[in-house]
Amino acid sequence: MNASMLPYILFSCLLLSVQAQNCSVREIIRYTTHLLEESPGSCPCSETAVSSCSCLPIAEPGHELACFVEGTEHMLKHNVSSNTIIARLNRAFQTQRDRNLCESLARGHQCLYKNKGSVKEFLNKILRTYQAINK
């Protein structure tokens, strides 16, 4: 590596840290981990079966924020978990989506998904998504 590449490398690192900061990565990881620890055992999600289990959207790449907003709104309406934490997550996702703060996660305001999953699967999707940004 020659010395002329050093400014580019430093600038790239700075951009990544700014993106992670704008995405509230640490805060979202902390909240999501807490919710996963307090959530009951995995509840099977079947859209055809009538059950008390919530079926939440598992986002397609690039549509995570819209699906995270939709999923956390559903959780709030149905008192799935700790409402204070869910409300904070929902607000963070809405802000990121509306201000395009996490560009890789927001290609519009429509939640696109092929599958739905349990609350635990939904929370794990949030956690994996933000852990990938944090790397």
Can you describe this structure?
- A two-stranded antiparallel ribbon has the order 1-2.
- It is globular and about 55 Å long.
- The protein has one domain (24-134).
- The chain contains five helices and two strands; from the N terminus they run H-H-E-H-H-E-H.
- The chain has helices spanning 6-22, 25-38, 64-77, 83-98, 119-134; strands at 56-59, 113-117.
- With 135 residues, it is mainly α.
- Mean pLDDT is 80; it is low at 10-21.
- Helix 2 runs antiparallel to helix 5, helix 3 (64-77) packs antiparallel against helix 4 and helix 3 (64-77) packs antiparallel against helix 5 (119-134).
- The two termini are 22 Å apart.
Order of helices and strands: HHEHHEH
Report the β-strand fraction as a percent range: 5-15%
Termini separation: 22 Å
Low-pLDDT ranges: 10-21
Mean pLDDT: 80
From the alpha-carbon coordinates, what is the Rg to the nearest angstrom?
A: 17 Å
Task: Give the oligomeric state.
Answer: single chain
The helix count comes to 5
- Summarize the main sheet: 2 strands, antiparallel
What overall form do the CA principal axes indicate?
globular
Helix/sheet category: mainly alpha
Question: Order of strands across the biggest sheet?
Answer: 1-2
Total tally of structural domains:
1
Organism: Opisthocomus hoazin (Hoatzin)
Signal peptide: 1-20
GO molecular function, one term: interleukin-9 receptor binding
Protein name: Interleukin-9
Secondary-structure blueprint of this entry?
Layout: H1 6-22, H2 25-38, E1 56-59, H3 64-77, H4 83-98, E2 113-117, H5 119-134
Antiparallel strand pairs: 1-2
Helix pairs in contact: 2-4, 2-5, 3-4, 3-5
